[in-house]
């Protein structure tokens, strides 16, 4: 099977692997998330009820207010942050927040990234070369594979705690 | 990024470790967006309520102001967005001691950094409006969209860390809305009615924001002969930014960069949508889920002196059954007191709060502590936000909201 590799025009952070949580929807940490329980909480959001902790979020665009810049940092300090965030287009706030929190980020694709990456796939985000690589579309790769990331920080530990939930 | 001598010295730590930390952060952001250099800014405005800062953010601020070399002061006027509480009314909001303690620590840190605690999201009405072409680093989406669109100033959405960094370095990466090419219209909409009241202006902003959908879209709006007030445009812009992450709009014949459609490149765009009253009614109806109301809130953005005057007039002779909260800035509150507006609102059983904003003040915890779920407001921005905090928010005119405070029901 041919491996899917998507190139981003904008990138920052370290290389990570993990389960992709994919939706053609936006992201605002303040409006969409219950940051205490680690799930999407806004009823209208396509990922409502699903945990984002330790996942690689693949979404359309950044939404809403400026608070997310601090919130990513605060979420990261409690090991309750996404592992990486990938957007078709991003606003300045989440970039600033990702820079402070040390969360890898990709944005700016020729394709609709939310349509290309299967929900639940096991993917690699490599900001150094600006790519999102779908390693296993079925997402069946072992969570322990992420332990190979030598630069991993706190969020990696969540990968083993969080079960993948099917969409629907 | 290309750095000048001063920026190179900052990056090398020659201007202190705090400036070095700040410019490193700004370079990471600037390089992400392919900024070619920095642009000096005249003002910075920081959004940093303790709910979003959290303990981690407060500790981060405290580390900055404990810099060993003692060089930690901001270089340009740097002001703050609403705080997470009005200390004098914290009990009425059901806020806990730990929230207030975290708030005090954050304020102490900001004061040590030389930040001026203005605690407002309407600084363009109350502190120092940015002028056309002025480069600034503003936090709060409502402040940015108003300053960009109505004042013709130039700012990106600067989240707390980046706005503080801009205050500390006196500059910001030159990308997006600092550049002419990003200020051209990308989305043309026509509006075939003139909104009544602030809730309708907010709803219209919400509809256009939803249509725009992301930060990089710049709506140009044709709506005939209109001359909206500062408060109307405040609600319009705040809602557009909230629903769409939009940072700049033009209204032909109203906003300074769009004396004509052609001036912002609107003629080459097809009309994306013609918005009528039915569109804002649909948005408003989408929130009207309950008849009974637990709390009425006027906030987001903070109220101007004239919104408070109107509210005071509506409160005369009433006795409220459910709490009514009206949130204003610390600049406006003393005048509201002086002119008797506060007294008239509170005589009816309302509460006037200063220096905070409802949704930046632990809205989820307040809902639990006070049993507030069904909330009525005339702010489209507020109702858009509060769904994520477990409220059932409802959008209505100020008059209907005041009626609801008296009867407990929204008609």
From TrEMBL, chain B:
* Example of a GO MF term: lyase activity
- Which UniProt keywords are present, listed alphabetically? Iron, Lyase
Cross-referenced Pfam families: AcnX
Under InterPro entries, the record lists: PMDh-L-like_dom (IPR007506)
In this protein, which residues make up the domain named Phosphomevalonate dehydratase large subunit-like? 1-403
Q: Coiled-coil regions in this chain? A: none
Spell out the protein name for this chain. Phosphomevalonate dehydratase large subunit-like domain-containing protein
Q: Which organism is it from?
A: Pandoraea thiooxydans
